[in-house]
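Hi support team,

I submitted a single chain yesterday and got back a structure, but I'm not sure I'm reading the token output correctly. Could someone confirm the output below corresponds to the sequence I sent? I've pasted both exactly as they appear in my results page.

Thanks,
R.
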Amino acid sequence: MPRTADAGLEGRVLDAAYQLWSRGGETALTMRAVARTARTTTPTLYQRFRDKKDILELLRKRAQEIMFSYMRRAHSAEEFCLRYFEFALKHRNEYELIHADWAVRLAKEEARPSFDLLKKSLADRLGGTPEQHAGLALALAALVHGTATLLLTKGVPERISRELRHACVAAFETLMENAAGRSFRPNHQQVSGAVGARRRGRVSQKI
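Hi R., thanks for writing in. Yes, this is the structure output for that exact sequence:
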């Protein structure tokens, strides 16, 4: 009698992989460990997934959904920052997974639910379309990500942690207020020119 396909296998595999990743990060996520935790065999696992990268990509999407569930409840700039930090600190491994190879995925314009939510929120507050605020959204995302990275550093004192959070919220709100009534679009040529001018100034001072 032929064996029937296990309809619940993929769900168990993803649950097992997420459990392993949440506890130990990428080093804990091996095909053998996933198969064992999902109560299946390694050959069966390879029939569904080519390699660990396939599983990681599905885990990244799940982590993005969890992060989005945090961010969608934010109704102010302060709430957005604080919920972002809460997710990063409570789900360190998932946070790292979301931002792994971020530049490659950004260039491919892959779906980024929380980033798209930020653009929509900016459009609701400042007017215009979400895409008109892509530059501002990128600046704000860089701000909160940089702060979250500092907060994730081992041994940060609570006082410094509070100061970092407050400074980020203040900078976030200032950027939004300054962007009101105008489109925030970084001019890469102007930035490059300014950098070049500073370099030439340093050279002339040395001469």
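A quick pointer for reading it: The two ends are 87 Å apart (CA to CA). Let us know if anything else looks off.

Best,
Support desk
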